[in-house]
Amino acid sequence: MIIATKQLDYNALKSYANNLDGIVNYVDKTVPDWARHLKFIVMNQRFYTAVHLRKTLTLPYKARMTLSDKLLEDVRVTGVVSKVITLKDVLSCCDKHDLGEMIRCKLGRESNS
What we know:
Elements: E1 2-3, H1 10-15, H2 20-29, H3 39-54, H4 61-71, E2 85-86, H5 87-92, H6 96-112
Parallel strand pairs: 1-2
Helix pairs in contact: 2-4, 3-4
């Protein structure tokens, strides 16, 4: 399963204990702007965060369940949940020159249409 990041700010997550829409927006913003259109990454990041939020013992049980349930609304996980790969890992394995060419080609096609 590909996610944006494994680094979670638990203090920030706890600050959204009473703001259900805020936590979804916060988690979505952990996905870089350039990858946010890839819904599977956004959904995987929500799932990953919800699972780790449930393990956070510094929040009351009811708050953890409410927040994680909100994060999991309409989420469909893509990939194998027992294997987590970050975007950084994916980018470190690709040829940067070829990736740049692919992006320039795509941007060139979009500007011509």
